[in-house]
Structures are given as C-alpha cells and as structure tokens.
Amino acid sequence: MTQEPTRLLDDVTTSAGLRRDLTAAVRHRVPYDAGAGAARFEASLAKGAGAASSGWGAGTLGLGALILGGLIGAGLWLSRGPDPSPPEVALGGAGVTARSVQAAPETVLEDRVQETDRPGAQGPVAVLEDRSGETAGAAPAEAPEEVVEDMSERSAADARGDGKKARARKAARVEAARGSGDGAADYLREARSLQAARGFLGRDPAEALARAEAGAAEFKAGQFAQEWEGVAVLALFELDRQTEAERRAAAFLTRFPNGPYASQVREALDRQ
Amino acid sequence: MKDLTDPRHTAKRDGPQVLDAARLFRDHAEFVANFAVRLGVGRPEVDDVVQEVFLVAHRRGGFVPGAARPTTWLAEITLRVVSAGRRRLRRSREDADTEAVAAATAQGGSSPGEQAETSEALRRVQQALDTLEEGKRAVFILFELEGESCEAIAAGLGIPIGTVYSRLHKARKQFMEAHARLVAGPPRPLARSQTVTS
User: Do A196 and A124 lie in a common domain?
Assistant: First the structure.
C-alpha cells in the first residue's frame, strides 16, 4: 500500500511563499447563501428536476436523452417485477421533494459513465418530469394562497408597526402546514421561511426580527438555528436596539464563530 | 463530525443509509460552490452550478456511504457539470479570476494591507490552478486545498488510486512551476486564461 503523500502545506521543503499562498487559499471560502440556494433547489424539484437546469446542464437534457432515459427507466422498472407498494400520489410543493428523492434511485443506479457522452444516463429526468407533471393539478391551488398571504402581510406590516409577531407566527404556521412533515420537506420549508425572513433585512427589520424569532421557535429542531439567530441579531442592529443586539451578537459569535453570519455580525458590531 | 445516520435526512432502503439531496445540500453546498470556483466557474454562475450538481445528486438517488466521502462524490458530479458547461459556454476565464479576488477583498475583518496580500495570494493560486488540466486540477484541489485523502478522491472520482497519485504528482509539479513564475514575474492584469482544456 502506498503511503499518503505529504500535503504541500505540511511539507517543510515547500517554499514559504507557496505555503503562505496555499494557506490563504485553504482559509478562503466563497460565501454561499445556503438558505437561498436550498429554497431555489426546492422550487426546482417541485417544478420538476429539469426546471432549474441552466446552461450548465440543460444541454444534456435533450429530447434524445428524454426518450432514451424513459426507455431505460421503463426497462429497469419492468425488470424489477411487480411492486407491492401502492403508487405514490404527488401532492406538490415540498412534499414532492422527499418522495422524488425516494423514487429516483430506482432508475438511477448506474450513471457513472460520462453523462455527456451517454445521453441515456439522463434517464431519471424523464421519470422525474413525469412525476412533476402529476403535480400540476395540485400546485396551482396552493400558489395563489401564498401570494395573497404575502401581500396581505406586507400591506399590514406597512400600515401598522404592531402585530408583526402574530403575523410572523401565522406565516410560520402556514409554512409548517405545507408538506408532509418528513425531514427533507421540513428542511426545505425551513429554508424557504428563512429566505423570506432574510428578505426583510435592510427594509423592514421589525418584520425580519419577528419572522426570525417565529421561525426559530417553529423549527426548534431545524437545521438553520444559527441562521435564524443571525438574522435576528442583524435585525436588532438595524432597529438600533443596541444593548440587546450586542448581547446576542456576543453570544452568537461565541457559539458560531465561523458561521455564515459571523462576519456580518462582526461588521455590525464594529459599526457601533 | 456530522452525524450521517441522522434519520431526518437519511433514507433507509434495503442496503446502507443514503444521504438524500436535501441533506447533502445543507452540508455541502458551500463545498461545491468553493470547488466550482476553484475549477474556474465565475461567481454569477456558481449558484447555477451548485443547483445543477445537487439535481444530479438527487437523480442519482443521494449518496450511499462507502469508500468515497460525500465531498469527493459531489466533486465528481461538479467536475462533470463544470466540464459540460464549459464546453458549451466557453465562458471567459477573466470572470473567475477577477471575481475570486473580489470575493477575497470583500471579506471583512482585516486591514487593507492584509486584504491586498490575501487577494494577491488567491490570485496566484487561482492562476496557477488555471494552468492545470481539469482532471489534475480536481485532484490537486481536493487533496491540497480540501484535505481529502487519496483513497476518498479515487473512490469519489471513480478512478484508480494510482491515477490519483499520478495526477497529483504531475499537478503539483505544474502548479509549483506556474506559482514560481507568478511570484517571480511582475504583477500583471488578472485573468488570462493560460490553458483551458476540457
């Protein structure tokens, strides 16, 4: 067995300049908004897996791939024999995500070969798109409600300064009412709620704070604890609630010194 | 250490625990974004690439723990997505370099002098990386910058471990030569694509 090579960073024979540059590169992380990305990811899945495909992947999702993929998927399905479980009923929204995740592997067992060289590797897309088609009837029933909800909340928030917490809790409950409640759906709903809360930073910090606190309470066992608290702390700074903001910022930085909101919280502290 | 057996985000099938795409996204979206940028993807395209990578991960049915790690498994998908996208779009490398430095400069918490030094360091590393062919570049990034083991890289990229050693050896040589040239040479404008292969 060959021994693992020594990394250039750890190799004393590497020049100091190179090690310094590599250290900077290792430490540098591209800021990526996981909450917003997750919300977009969820939307893509809800629309059908191919919906979010940009120019980076769309070329592999051509008609030929669709047809070949469908044939391969059908072949795999037929070769599997009768399925004792009842057919899944797509409900739309986040619920589709988990079910699609469960369903996809059956048709995606082998795409290790270059996808771009083997159009058939995209077979599962056809399956997913078919499933997304099934949701078409269910999704629109939910969408207008969401729009009305957001519009009413926004106008009410503009009209009155109070009642934000109550509305935020209601919004969190509406979000919570969606989906089937399994882990993946919870995660994606939480991401969507977080994105909505974050959207109020810089324009309506009271609403952002109310939503962040409602979201943190709603998703106590969720995946975005530090993001909720980060939004809340930033909102407190925007509201000029100095004492509370500084206290929570200090606690936040102690708990999450390298989190995605740490630098913003530090900057907010420095500005005081 | 992440709990890979968290039932909230694992799907128990007939075999081993599977990490679904949502869980993978939560844990590794940032890794994929970083890896994509180091492969030369410009900031405006990073989110598209990340989305595409996790859609492919979703289509594959999630990650099954094995010899590969989730990161190296996602790296293989990222490499394919970036490679396919580059063949189609032929985007300018200028964007990647300029934006990598801009991102570094935008980071708070250090003095302007330190920021300038960091920007220069990142520029040199990115430009030296740009000289590497994609396969070698991926191995170099995963091993040297992301701290992955050769075994995990081999399993993730689906190549023999001997190939990982070979690519790493060649990549290091080429990277160090390019870096030395950049250090020795006069400052020059960012962004010249040196070799773009796919």
Answer: no
